[in-house]
Design goal:
The chain is about 10% helix and about 55% strand.
Amino acid sequence: MKNLHLYFMNKKAIVLCFVLFNIHLMNAQDDKIKFGAYARALQQSNTLGKSDTLNPDNTSKGNVLLDLGLNINPDKKTEIQAIIRFNNNFSGFYTAGASASLRQLYVKGIVGKYFNYQVGDLYLKLTPYTFFNNNAEGSVNEAGIFSDLRRDYTNYENLSNRGNAWWQQGAATNFAISFSNSIIDTLKVDAFFLRNRASYAQLPSSFHAGGKITVTQGPRLKLAFNYLDLYDLGSNVKIDSLAKSNPVGSGEIDLKIINGKNVQLALIGEGGFSSYVFKGDTAQTKSGFFYDAGLQLNLKPQNLIVTANYTYVDPLFYSAAAQTKRVNYGNTPTTLANYGNDPKNIMTRGITVFDLVRDPSVYNQGIVRNLMAYNPIYGNAQPYGKATPNRTGIELNVQYKDSLQKIVADVDAAFLSDIVGEGSAELRSFIVLKGGIDFNIHKFFDWKKRLILTTGYKFESTNRGGDALQAVSLVNNLVDLGLEIEAIKKFSFLVGFKMLTAQGNEFVAVRNQYNDITNYTPMANINVAQNIFAFGLKYRFSDKTYLTVQNHMFDYKDNTTATNNYSINQVLVMFNMNF
């Protein structure tokens, strides 16, 4: 009877799959139903260093899964997309531990000739200050041996594999209008309505609604206006006192001051406002604003783009969909979470660069209203992205790639400071230097096989004056190095190295449900070093299908407390396929 477990648990999904498959066979000649799939087999073997006696000498886990995509076109203007997941853990026997579930479903189409719509699961992104899923910490131009795992496993499982878009459920629509003999060339309207949270016994229903209007006036000028509101309906559960609303609006400009064949100079910027409204007995409103303006120079013959901007984000600017962190530092890693040699004094691992690469459980999928906790050793200047409140300063960016992409470079610098003091009359100052350069060495010599060197480095410092009880001095360094050598056609040797170091001290703000700072957690005598060295082999069956075998050696060292030190060795085999 256990062998029937899969069918009883998920019979609806399985029946749906086979019904659609039969429909496909019947209508194949009309090409109304198409199949696509993502498949992955992953096996990991993990061991802690010899100093650990609490865990088995070796822990292994793995699974094989198939995400079967069904694309149905009942007519020329309608598309239905469903993704059904079949998963089986290697630890199970026959179908023990197997499951089938509906992973994604949406319907989209066109009404008339102009209105596009999508209902169900969708990905949305606006601007870094309004609706934006910021990149996770712990990487700066990662080696391929790390980025493959992050992209095809960690981000894919976390539904964050579409760049900076948030995966949401709801409805979206857009349309565009072109004008002739008018000062306006095109007008595009995007709108969405999302369910952020269903109602619970103690929590009201929550929704997210908004949109964007983009106006283009010739090749020189583009204007855009964004508005969205994350709001609760407390009346659904008769608890209006808990209901909140977070409207955010902004305007964008892209004006080509010089629009030549070889040179472009543009004025770019965005500015806007926010409100954080609390209803009921705790009625109050917090209002903030921001502006971000600068110049962008594009030297086309030199393949060089230089951007300089000044940013100001008010201490009371709150934008939930832009400030929600992708990493949830309140979560515990799933791989060897506890360690040590004393059963009465078990050590619990925090999130490390090792986990940020390969552990979907430390990531956050939903948009939250309050500013989430963060760890300053991974990024202290802008932990909530560009929309981090209480920041002002200058940001610089340089992008370069030659015509053959032999060298591809992206370099950033930021010189920021607090606008108001946090726990002190003194203001913190931040310096961030970050850059990544890819050297496609094989293109220098016109080799057919790959020889790629990737480099990345990030330096960040935080400083604040004052007496010994208020002074802050924290320095972080992150290094990413990688090498790919294609010895035989489609068969590559991969090497990667990642190192994070942090020294100094900081005070981390503790906030309540109203985002007010109620206390500070001191982080004194920070002196840690984390590093991963990895090597492996990769065979590419195609651009989207490959098999890789890798060995990752991670070392965590706390120079202030030796008992916190540990090391992890992981061997993994992953087969990844898109078809």
